[in-house]
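Below is how a single chain appears once it has passed through the pipeline. First comes the sequence as given, then the structure the pipeline wrote out for it. We keep one example in the README because the format questions we get most often are answered faster by looking than by reading.
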Amino acid sequence: RPGHVFLPGMPREFPFTVEVELMPQQQEQRRQRFFLTWIVALLVVEGGVLYLTLRPLRKRMTRLGLATASLGSGRLGTRVEARPEGDLIDALGNSFNIMADRLEGLVSSHRELLSSVAHELRTPLARIGLALEMARESRDEPSRNEKLDRMEKDLLALDRLVSELLEYNRLSRPELESASEPVDLGELAREVGETERWGREDVEVTVSGTATLRGDRSLLARALGNLVRNACAHARTSIAVEVVETAAGVVLRVDDDGPGMPPSIGSRIGQPFLRGEASRPDGTGLGLAIVHRIALLHGGTLEAAESRMGGARLSLILPARG
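Resulting structure:
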């Protein structure tokens, strides 16, 4: 046999063997087979461990992929289970849920806005149609002129509503960037106060305080003008515009001595087409919503509270900008 040598001349019934070492080539082959066997065994074990480890991860990634496809198909209520303090997959799940919440809120607000727009447009259009029909049937010249005047007012209201809608939509675009320039808010408040009170000469508008803030002057003038115009519509005799400089920025306060704002309205200030019982019939319901959008573009906010004058206080809070 390999490794055994029979010496000649010895009786066959008393053979003896001498063990000899294998040839070096055979030893190398055996060593290679040994290491190859261990490497294959280690790879099999490692593969099994990886499979058992990655199987739950694969299932979670699959669920996240299915949730993404579901959200993309229009199921805006789709959410995934994710721990607040978890691993990377949990972080992806939390980001997905935040994105889904924002998308659902955005679509919901757009649906509400579309419904409100349809309602707001229907009323003046119905009045115009009625006035037109009555004008056609009327044989009296003064009566016909009265119907035409009413139609003209409704058309102006429609034009104002469409303009406000376009402005609100423009300010709602995420890519819109406001200018950044030093603005003297005290001077701006005095200019706006003089401009907006022309329709209410019986109302006294006082302006106090001054501060300089970096921002978009035209947008800030639009926001402050809407606040003063809103106050002029509800004030009895006086309006106070105050510019207050704080450590964090500037606060523009507009107070009036009108009937005030119900708490249910004040908590939802800034929403489009939000009206109280004392709102003007010719208002669009978008004035304060535009102010809120301008505040957001400057990193600020709009707040409503009870005024020390007995009416409403609307505060445009603007943080300092570099």
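The first helix runs from residue 24 to 72.

See the next section for the split statistics.
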